Each structure stands twice: as C-alpha cells, then as structure tokens.
Amino acid sequence: MDMQEFFQDRRNQAMFGGTVLFMFIFPIYFALVPSLVGLDDAGVSDSSGTWSVSFTEETFTQTENSGELGDGDTYDSTFILTEDMIGVNRNVASVTFEVSCTDTDDNLANDEANGESDLAGVTGDIQDQSASGTCGGGDAFTMTWSIVDGYDGQTYETEGKMSDITSRWSDNGSARGDWLVGITAEINEDPGIGIIFGDDGEDYDLTWSVVVFEVSMEPVLNIDDPTTE
C-alpha cells in the first residue's frame, strides 16, 4: 500500500492524526508535571499555602573548669562553632555561656566573677556582652546571644511561600567562628575574719550551650465536615 492509498482510508487518517497529536502533547505534559505537583526544587520552594511549621533541635554543650584563680586572675574560655557542626539546612538559634561558682570559705564576703566576651572571630553582626555575679548561690552569671529573632522552637501554622518561611528562620550565616569569653576572679575577704580563715581563690565552672535547628513544613489540609453543612 502506497502513501496515497494509506491516507484515503479514514481509519488510517484518524490513527495518523492521533499519533501526531500525541507527539506534541507528550513532551509538553512531562515538562509541566513537575511544576504542577511540586517535584522540582524551584516548584517546592515557591509553593504557597497553609503550612504547619515545626523545628528539630540539637544542643551542643562544652564544659570546663578554670582551676583556682586568685584575685584579679583571668581565664579565657573558647568555643569553636563550625559549619560542619551545624550541618546542612540547619541554623543557629542561640549561644549561651554560663559561669557557676560556690564560695565555701567561712567568710561573710562572697567571691565574684566578671566576664567580657570577644566576638571578633565570629561571623555576623553579633554584639559583645559583659556580665558579673557573686558565687554565693552557685550561678554567677549567664550570657545569651539570640541569633534568630523570635525563635522559640514551638510548632505553628502560617500561610505563605515555603521560601519565605525558610528565609524567616535563617541565621544568614551568622555565629560561625571562635566564641571567646574572658573571666576575671574577684576574691573578697571579710576584714574581721579573713586573717583567721583566709581566702586563697576560687574556681569557676564554665558551660557553653549552642542550640541549632532544622525547619520542617507540612501542608495543612482543611477538609469540610459534611455533617455541619
């Protein structure tokens, strides 16, 4: 059968037309499907809707002891926070430095601790802090840096684009580097009994705590209850 005879048959004409139509529709369909169902990266990040936003946390902790410090002696404590520690798609929520000490001398005047941070080796616009406190109650002082404003780790629902929500909880690359706090011992002796009992010095327990988190989002499906209609 030659081509002329082939196209004279209505059934053959319909088959040929269907084949040509399929050849055009098939590649267009598969080009559109990923963006329609959100399988490609761009489609996912720009998906809009109502989302349940939750957080998965991990806390890094470093503890050390200064050893006994005399009046005016100093001790530098450093915590190095690297990108490898934080991990992919995770952000830094906060960094906390705590100083604890207990003055057990038979002395009416409690020893003290003074601290100043030096964040020159830390990325981002993070401000230095200073603090002080006594050793009478165990906890002398605490410094806390909130890296992502408003973060509390609580699950919530919101409307918007996934990319905007992710950006809302980004640390923007801040807090990486060498965190340093220098403490200075202040040893206080009671004038009346200091000669008898003495107070040679104080040792300080130092604790760094860093909270990192990952954001997760799940679409919220609002299904009407037919019994209420």
How helix-rich are the residues, as a percent range? 10-25%
What is the H/E order?
HHHEEHEEEEEHEHE
**Tell me, what is the CATH class of the largest domain?**
Mainly Beta
By CATH, the architecture of the largest domain is named Sandwich
Strand order of the largest sheet: 6-3-9-1-7
The shape, in one word, is elongated
Q: What name does the CATH topology of the largest domain carry?
A: Jelly Rolls
Describe this structure in words.
With 229 residues, the chain is α+β, with helices and mostly antiparallel strands. The protein has a 5-stranded antiparallel sheet. Strands 2-8-4-5 form a 4-stranded antiparallel sheet. The longest helix is centred in the N-terminal third of the chain and has 28 residues. 24% of the residues lie in helices and 42% in strands. It folds into 2 domains: 30 residues; 172 residues, Sandwich (Jelly Rolls), CATH 2.60.120. It is elongated. The protein contains 6 helices and 9 strands, in the order αααββαβββββαβαβ.
Task: Provide a concise account of the structure shown.
The chain is an alpha+beta fold and 229 residues long.
List key phrases describing it.
single chain, 229 residues, alpha+beta, five-stranded antiparallel β-sheet, four-stranded antiparallel β-sheet, 6 helices, 9 strands, 42% strand, elongated
Structural topology:
Elements: H1 3-8, H2 10-37, H3 41-45, E1 48-69, E2 74-81, H4 83-86, E3 90-101, E4 112-118, E5 130-134, E6 138-146, E7 156-161, H5 162-168, E8 177-186, H6 194-197, E9 202-219
Antiparallel strand pairs: 1-7, 1-9, 2-8, 3-6, 3-9, 4-5, 4-8
